[in-house]
Design a protein that fits this description.
The protein starts with 7 loop residues before the first helix and ends with a strand. It has three helices and 21 strands. It folds into two domains: 184 residues, Immunoglobulin-like; 142 residues, Sandwich (Immunoglobulin-like), CATH 2.60.40. It is mainly beta and 344 residues long. It is globular, with a radius of gyration of 21 Å. Strand 10 and strand 11 form a beta hairpin.
């Protein structure tokens, strides 16, 4: 099982804390991370998953509430261009959690938008020396994450000024290798493939002693009626298996191999992405909120338990329960899927 890292989901959770005093923002701190009890941003996907400054990307958010996925939500997107001060320990500056500011560069409004990454993204968030902030000492390049990557933050606002949800997403940047020799740089350019988003190949549900049944992706339906929900009994424990493709060479939709620049050895090291699935539901309870595979594991699936709610807990929705699965790779790639089950 792999550990948490600062991704769009974690930053979005912090946004709730920042806006706790805003009208209409009343987070339930007693609820588990997997419990969807109000409108939330569960994930932000960038396509491509890794891009260079001034390169066009498409940004899509998974916005949900207890009634299901919000497909037509009007989201106000912007890039945050202000790096964090040297004395801040968080991955992203708290200044990025703003509706408007000089460093918040508007992008577009919509459920999914397209735009070019800021031209100075590697200077503000990556391996290049940044411009110093007013009243601050000269800056230094950002520290890479555990996979050697840097990220450009995106600020999301959903709702009117009186009651709104604020969240952050991130796009991995193609930047340089500070301190690397010319030979290492040349080898890195030859062997490194920018990250591709993972593919959520399949989700299955199995009851005790029962056969595994596929859970259709309800969010993939463009026309016609969505697929009929899978039926489970009240309080019934089930097993959920989420899988992704095997991967031997990038780009691919599984755990991609990649060269990593080791700052201590001053050399490239062969590594493979770890993978993690975050589970969410409008009712019921999961055994674990997140389940993952480490970079040394070659398995292409994870299993988690979910216990269906009692009938009385979902009477208002006619027994319908919404589930969401967010698959992330270690280099910031994201994909997601929604499903429904009927408790009866």
């Amino acid at each position: 099982m792999v550990g948490e890292r600062a991704t769009s989901l974690l930053v979005a959770a912090c946004a709730t804390v920042v806006l706790a005093s805003a009208p209409g923002c009343q987070p339930d701190f007693a609820a588990r991370a997997s419990s969807v009890v109000q409108e939330r941003v569960l994930a932000v996907r960038s396509e491509p998953a890794e891009a260079a400054p001034d390169q066009a990307v498409k940004l899509t958010a998974l916005v949900v509430d207890p009634s299901g996925t919000r497909k037509t939500e009007a989201i106000d997107w912007a890039f945050c261009t202000r790096p964090k001060p040297l004395d801040e320990l968080d991955d992203v500056s708290i200044a990025c959690f703003q509706r408007t500011a000089d460093w918040i560069v508007p992008l577009a409004v919509g459920p999914a938008v397209e735009g070019k990454l800021p031209l100075d993204a590697c200077r503000q968030w990556g391996s290049d020396v940044p411009e110093p902030l007013p009243g601050q000492p000269a800056g230094r390049p950002a520290d890479p994450d555990s996979t050697g990557g840097y990220f450009q933050p995106e600020r999301l606002v959903i709702g009117a000024s009186g009651s709104y949800v604020l969240a952050l997403g991130q796009t991995r940047l193609v930047c340089g290798l500070p301190g690397a020799t010319r030979d290492v740089l040349e080898e890195f350019k030859k062997t490194y493939t920018p990250n591709a988003n993972p593919i959520l190949a399949d989700v299955t549900l199995a009851t005790a002693g029962g056969a595994a049944l596929p859970l259709p992706d309800v969010d993939a339906a463009v026309t016609g009626e969505p697929p009929a929900p899978t039926i489970v009994h009240p309080g019934e424990p089930v097993s959920l298996v989420v899988s992704w493709p095997a991967c031997d060479a990038p780009p691919c939709g599984g755990a991609e191999p990649y060269p990593y620049y080791d700052l201590q050895q001053h050399a490239l090291v062969a590594r493979r992405e770890s993978m993690r699935v975050s589970f969410f539901a409008s009712a019921g309870s999961f055994r674990d909120d997140r389940v993952g595979r480490g970079e040394d594991e070659r398995e292409t699936s994870v299993e988690n338990g979910w216990t269906a709610p009692a009938s009385a807990d979902v009477a208002a929705t006619g027994g319908l329960v919404h589930l969401w699965f967010v698959l992330r790779d270690a280099r910031g790639g994201v994909t997601f899927r929604g499903a429904t089950v009927q408790v009866q």
